[in-house]
Design a protein that fits this description.
This protein has a single domain, classed as Beta-grasp domain (Ubiquitin-like (UB roll), Roll). It is built from four helices and five strands. A five-stranded mixed sheet has the order 2-1-5-3-4. Bound molecules: FE2/S2 (inorganic) cluster. FE2/S2 (inorganic) cluster binds next to loops.
Length: 131
């Protein structure tokens, strides 16, 4: 099974390496473990809050469809290795992913209890979310 590494960021205290079933989206993999990532539209390519940078393994992902490209255009600081987490599916190769600042902000807006706890204690509550 491929491994997906979520890079440490301003809220995630360390790199998280997760085993992933091929064909799952990055968003599903992150949410199953409570890794912070925005998902305003619920994963249907209707926003850009699940914006990620794919640091390793970008070419192993399925190609972007027009819908995803159009949505990504609405994102902030879009780069050559940008994808939407809800549209990018794993294949058999390992990936490394960096969740964007835009996505972290959206995650806290969507999860006020987790934000409150984080602001009060500096600790991130990782609450798994199933699909
Ligand atoms: S969660 Fe809205 S586009 Fe991915």
């Amino acid at each position: 099974m491929p491994k997906v590494t979520f890079k440490k960021n301003r809220v995630l205290p360390k790199d998280y390496v997760l085993e992933a079933e091929p064909g799952k989206t990055i968003l599903e993999i992150a949410q199953a473990e409570g890794i912070p990532i925005g998902a305003n539209c619920g994963g249907v390519c209707g926003c850009s809050t699940c914006h990620i940078y794919v640091v390793k393994g970008f070419d192993s992902l399925d190609e972007m469809e027009d819908r995803e490209e159009d949505r990504l255009d609405l994102g902030f600081d879009v780069r050559l290795n940008s994808r939407l987490g809800c549209q990018a599916r794993t294949s058999s190769e390992d990936l490394m992913v960096d969740v964007t600042e835009e996505s972290l902000k959206a995650f806290f807006d969507e999860n006020p209890k987790i934000r409150k706890h984080y602001e009060a204690t500096g600790e991130l509550l990782m609450v798994p979310h199933s699909h």
